[in-house]
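Table 4 source record.
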Amino acid sequence: MPGDSHISRNDPSCPILTTANGAPIGVQQALTAGPRGPVLMQDVALLEQMQHFNRERIPERVVHAKGSGAYGTFTVTGDVTKFTRAAFLSKVGKKTEVFLRFSTVAGERGAADAERDVRGFALKFYTEEGNWDLVGNNTPVFFVRDPYKFQNFIHTQKRNPQTNLRDMDMQWDFWSLCPEALHQITILMSDRGIPASYRHLHGFGSHTYSFINAGGERVWVKFHFKSKQGIKNMTDEDAAKAIGSDRETHQRDLFESIAKGDFPKWRVCVQIMTQSQAETFRWNPFDLTKVWPHGDFPLIEIGTLELNKNPENYFAEVEQAAFKPSALVPGIGPSPDKMLQARLMSYADTHLHRLGVNHHQIPVNKPRCPVMNYIRDGAQTDGSYGAATNYWPNSIASAPKPDPAFADPAWSLGQTVVDRFDSTQNHDDYTQPGDLYRLFDEGQRDRLTRRIAGGLGQARKEVQLRMVCHFFRADADYGTRIAKLLNIDLASLAPQHAAAR
């Protein structure tokens, strides 16, 4: 009855329906003025449900929009420590959790799984030194080698801007003007162009990457994933029949196979090329439209990949999975591959657009190791850094600091050395500030030094001493005035100033 404050529950064991902020909902029906009356604006639970529904979808991927995914493990079976210092490859038998997303490339999210298309093969390794993402395909090559052509190529695989239809003239016009695409075209149009399932295809890193070992030696590497289920493909007629009855053939096959314990596996191999071999190889080894012949660079088995767990929620785990070639770990790096260099930016940037600046905090993307940096805030941050320092360089003892032990060695591109050069070395940062100070009259110097001391005096003493040394390097009078205003003993400062010089 109205006004009765007694609350009873029919089934105490049943979870209570709540609003997004956790408030229990009593009746799941619209609040109206009378049985035929209009809905009231105060029905906040209804408004919340409608507002969220309008925002349930995020932008779909421009490429690889239709996908399926699963969790699994990578187990090391071959010793590659002479090639790489990557921790997750450090010993035979070591296991690393992974997430693998398969996809079609050209079609939208509603595309059929059995269409003739390249298949994406994107792996996320949750290593103890951060996530490593290997973003590849079921083919060892690609259509173009120049990143300027990539976006334009994808346009030809999508829809005509006027008709909104797939356009064979667009596709073949582009391909006819790009002979480098012929290798990939031949694979795509061959009998392997329509895999029978995601379990029955090989995967490739496609790009050339680098391995760096504990001694700082670098070699070039390509990654291969050989299906232990064997290769199975569909004819055009089989595919048309499958699409007519089920547009999700590959999704269904993958999910149901894992659900019943029939876990798909791949043999993981690498090809290795030294720098001296790269310099004399008959093709550009960093050309994405070329393979490395196995006769010259045989496959070396390094592990086994197994998929053994389905996602609990497709949207949260598969649709929001973010893969980017820029997610590298110590011991694995990029190469001069032009397409890879462009994708280092492009893939990360698309996730900033689709998922936001904190997409790395979404559970499926979140590293399983501690993450410590100075990146902060932004939409949907989980606030995990709390009150920790948010700038670098700093002199806070507990703040994270770089470790030179993890620095990659320099490498040469012809006469150019690629390295992280110290921007603080071999620069005169004091003459010009000193010259400027000496141009000031007495009043200007007094006001300048008092303003600086007013702010600097609020910093820790060690910071004050460090900064006063910089002022001394620019001009002795400059440093002396500020030191006196801060009540710093100039005699105790002299050894530091002399050592700095």
